[in-house]
Structures are given as C-alpha cells and as structure tokens.
Amino acid sequence: MNHIIISVKDLHKKYESFHAVKGISFEVYEGEIFGLLGPNGAGKSTTLEIIETLRNKTSGTVIVDGLNIDTNPSAIKQKIGVQLQTSGYYPGLNLIELINLFAGLYNEKTDAMALLKQVNLQDKAKAKFKELSGGQKQRFSIATTLINKPKVIFLDEPTTGLDPQARRNLWQLIKDIQSTGTTIIITTHYMDEAEILCNRVAIIDNGKIIAIDTPDKLIDNLVESGFEKPKEVKKANLEDVFINLTGHSIREV
Ligand code: ADP
Ligand code: MG
Questions:
Q1: What confidence tens digit (pLDDT) does each residue in 71-109 have?
Q2: What's this model's pTM, rounded to 2 decimal places?
Q3: Backbone φ and ψ of 228, nearest 5°
Q4: Which residue out of 45, 56, 155 has the highest number of ligand 1 atoms within 8 Å of its CB and is therefore the one to mutate?
Q5: Among 15, 34, 153, 205, which residue has the least CB neighbours within 10 Å?
Q6: CA–CA separation, 237 and 229 (whole Å)
C-alpha cells in the first residue's frame, strides 16, 4: 500500500475574478517523485505555493503528512523543503555562510559543508551565489531545501534554462535525494525529464487536471487509442548527438 503524504481535494484559487486553479484533486505517495506538468499559466506554481503554505487558497482541502494547512501551517513548514527566493541570498555572503544563515532561521543545526558536498558544491564553499553557473545555482537552491531535513521537497522548474549536461546532473541529484526517502514534487516543461524522473505525473491545463498516472501508463493509453507518431522515430535524437560529442561531465566546475 502506498502511504499518502499529500492530499489535495477540490482546490480552487481565484486571483480576484480570475479563476487560476479550478477544483483540482490529487494525492502524492510517500517516497515518490511526483511531476506537475502543464503549459505556462496552467496553475502549477500556484498549486505548489498553496501546498507550501506560501499562498492562500480560495477553497479546498490540503493535507500534508496528516496536517491540515488551514489549522497547522507552521507544523507543515517544518516538514517541507522549499526553494527560497534568490532575492534572499545576501550578496555579501558565501555559500557556507548562506546555509548557516538559513539553518539559523530554521533553528536547525546543520553541517553546511556536508550539505554542499551532497550537491557537489564543496569546491565552491567560499564562492558567492552570483559567481555560480546556472546549474550550480540550481544545485545550491536544492541544497537549501534540505537544510531542515524535510520529508517532502518542492522544486519549481529546477532545470529550466540549463544545458543538457547540467540537466542530467540535476536529475541524478534529484534521484539521489529520492533514494534517501524524501518525497519530491517537481514542475517541469521537459517531457523527457518527466518521463525519466517522475514515478507519476499530473498534467494540468487551464487550472484543471486532465490526466494523472505513471508516464508509462499515459503513453500506453495514447498508443492504445490508435495514436501513431507522424514519422518514424530514429534511434537517437539531436540531444543524444550533443551529449555523445560533448560528454556527460559538467563543465562548470
Ligand atoms: P504556471 O506555474 O503553471 O505557469 P501559475 O500558477 O504561475 O502558472 O499561474 C496561473 C495563472 O494565474 C496565470 O494565468 C497567472 O497569470 C495567474 N497568476 C499567478 N499569480 C498571480 C497573481 N499574484 N495575481 C494574479 N494572477 C496571477
Ligand atoms: Mg510556474
């Protein structure tokens, strides 16, 4: 039996007269990587931020690890890992100092160097955030979600704008975090990424969930419905060519 760690029921969000989230319901199982997929403006970030207790909902029920967001928002905050706004990264502080600062805010004792090592940034411990490459910035941001040893972390488009190597490197990091038992909710625009990373995905369009299942099952359903790709698929694509020529190692160290 899958243990349900997050339950969302009939969630609505209105921004004044604009109905951004129109009654969505889904459950996230403990230990899985759950993907929220959908075009820009679909309501992904709104949904995440409501579960993260960072945004008010209009109506609906959200339960995180047995706690209701209406009655226990601060207890939920302690159980979840949230990516902080980069505006909170004081420009004068290096990575170690930033982690120690955030740990202080969480009232947590943390081994900042061990955390940087976990995201492969130990060599950048004394660097400032602005001196990092795009992939390194994302890895640091993910490290900050782990400070309070959360049961669930939320990653909103962590790989947008990264090059193929940095993207793959981040996939590995996300899988490593999952292997420690942490549940991960992620949004992405990259379907290859969702297919590789996510145990299950929900596809949101226009504030509504239009499909929810494992990537495999969703693909099988489409094929069973008689769908055929318009042209024969080659055994590799241009991204494979690029990775094959330039290698898997990251260039940003
Ligand atoms: P996604 O993350 O899927 O791109 P969002 O949740 O950010 O979508 O936004 C969903 C819709 O709600 C969009 O049409 C967006 O313009 C609107 N929206 C988001 N935040 C606000 C806000 N603070 N005020 C008004 N409208 C908003
Ligand atoms: Mg968004």
A1: 999 999 999 999 887 777 889 999 999 999 999 988 888
A2: 0.92
A3: -130, 140
A4: 45
A5: 15
A6: 15
